[in-house]
Amino acid sequence: MLSIKAESLTKEFKVFQSRPGLKGAFRDLFNRQYRVIRAVDAIDLSVNQGEMVGYIGENGAGKSTTIKMLTGILQPTSGQLLVNGYDPHGQREQFVRTIGVVFGQRSQLWWDIAVQESFRLLQKVYRIPEQDFKPYLDRMIEVLNISPLLDQPVRKLSLGQRMRCELAAALIHQPALLFLDEPTIGLDVLVKENIRQFLKEINKEFGTTILLTTHDLADIEALCSRVVMLDKGKIIYDGGLQRLRNEWGDGKKIHIETVDTYTLSQLQAQTEGMKVHWIEEGPMRFTAILENGNAKVPEVISRIVEHVAVQEIQIEEASTEEIVRKIYQEGLVHA
Ligand SMILES: Nc1ncnc2c1ncn2[C@@H]1O[C@H](COP(=O)(O)OP(=O)(O)OP(=O)(O)O)[C@@H](O)[C@H]1O
Q: Name one GO molecular function term (predicted).
């Protein structure tokens, strides 16, 4: 079953443009001029139930605008959109019961009341029967380790504590789809790791679909097997994290330490016909740089170990962060 189905989804904003000078301001009074910004430009996106998808892009790429349409906050300018089988904007009331939302900067908990009171209020908002509410909430409290925080007002919590409570609040009605916008921003390493672990668990146990928007690519690496990359309102990559690495992560390096002394040409000879560039790092240390998906690491290694006495081998892969930076710099469509 599809959680999200978007076809040619587009959002345009009309932005008022003022003319310079006093004369311009006067003319603006009678005849306003607008410029149209296409924040999201005819995107097609299908997400299956249970998938964990990373939605990434530079500032202003159109991520928030997409999420706002997917959560029903904004009405699309054009295109088709079904989320959990609903039109998010048109059928908002039924639709919101099927999603959970965590927007890093905004809270859905009431600031001045104790956390558990917020949970109770949300139970009423979503009309969750007590027999469903209690055991599930107890489970969240345990896994997220928020029991000591329940009787504290939200304003007294640290960011990491609040984030864990936000997650419990977003999941209190057991939504099929969870939207996360920068869920680990500003958190320390340990809390980040706990939250990632928790998200993996709920995805596995309840089959919750997760759409994650983040600038922290470590979140994506830890959680998502699929990445959708947006640039100027268009999807420029939609596929596996591994494919992204294979296609863009050129410069994959193999560091080799040999037992005996070899010349550079002896090593070069082993990978003849392959797109491998060799560098001599020291008397018995060499580096092979593999070109973009053409030369495969296992094949290079097996050719080397057949004829060269090797002491140590180390493989260095480009990080997702480097790959993404490169894609934006080169501005090429590889998908
Ligand atoms: N309400 C609005 N009115 C006019 N323009 C808008 C509005 N909201 C967004 N935009 C414009 O649409 C484009 C996409 O913005 P959006 O906030 O979706 O990007 P983003 O990828 O979420 O960026 P960031 O990572 O900075 O949050 C930008 O050019 C932005 O200025």
A: ATP binding
